[in-house]
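Hello,

Our lab assistant flagged a job as stuck in the queue for most of the afternoon. It eventually completed. Since we weren't sure the result was trustworthy after the delay, we are filing this so someone can double-check. Below is the sequence as submitted and the structure that was eventually returned. Let us know if re-running is recommended.
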Amino acid sequence: MINMSSKEFFFIGISLSNNQNNDSSVCVLDRNKKIVYLDKFYFTNDIELFLEENPYVKNSQMAVSIPHDNAILEGKWRIHCKNYKMLTDVFDINRNDWTNRLSDRCATVFSKLKKTGAIVYRFEVNLLRDAYSIGAHYLQRTSLDCKSLQSALKIKYGFDELPENMLPASSLEAILGAMFIYDRAKGFINTKKIYEFGGVDVLNRV
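-- returned structure --
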């Protein structure tokens, strides 16, 4: 029996890419855990427009992934980061942010959204997949990995409405995020704060 203690009607998962060259996706679940909206974005402006104008955002809880920073290092920084290279006192350890592991794309957007009273959390895709026992058994985001994840969401977690053709990796990750925030809101799982990123709590299932 569903615990209807949460007053929100929609549960939103957003899989955020680290730049506009890769697709981001959003998934919206209703109170019956049915997908009512699934779409892809590329530009930051499109994400902001969705948050400002889409009626699903009101009366919702939201979970947003934290993208990894995959920026290609400049040649001299690749040389400097070799473990046998001496670091002199003139070496700027984080020049051009090359040591950053996580991307802060849209971090200020979600921080501002939280300050308006919206229920917003962040999640780390790999940790969440492991917590739901659907970790990557193949190279992440390859066709085999996407097929495995989609099958798990469809068979193990009841998303019967998923099509036979393969969805993009970002869409599958958005569904995972929406399922996570849905389960948390309904009291089906326990969660814990693992750290804070950009002023928003990062949660994982325990």
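-- support follow-up --
The delay was a queue issue, not a problem with the job. The result is valid. The helical segments are 44-53, 75-80, 107-115, 125-131, 143-156, 169-185. The mean pLDDT is 88.
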